[in-house]
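INFO  loader      accepted 1 record
INFO  loader      residues=111
INFO  predictor   begin
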Amino acid sequence: MTQPEPPASLPKYLAEGLPKQDADTLRDIREYVDALIEYREQPVDPEELPDTAEPVNLDDSGKGTVVKEKVKCGDDTCKCASGAPADMHGPYLYRYYREGSELTSEYLGKP
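INFO  predictor   done
INFO  writer      dumping tokens
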């Protein structure tokens, strides 16, 4: 049996360093990675979401929390710059999840 090839997405320092570890350390790493994935994919506490975000239930991957949200476009001359909900754009769907210790979001499209 030959050593497996690392995925192309794996950073070089990990692709070079992981094969140097003993089996017990690799098991510890696997346990840590599984726990990290579970942490990042857990639903986001509604208290952490922006005030304009409304959680929605979708048959989804379970990663993070999907919300419907109205947003500002960033153009200071647009009516949405006032921050009044009626003047904001959307609603749009976003997924909020954790990247490390930071809460981040990704645009999913229109509902």
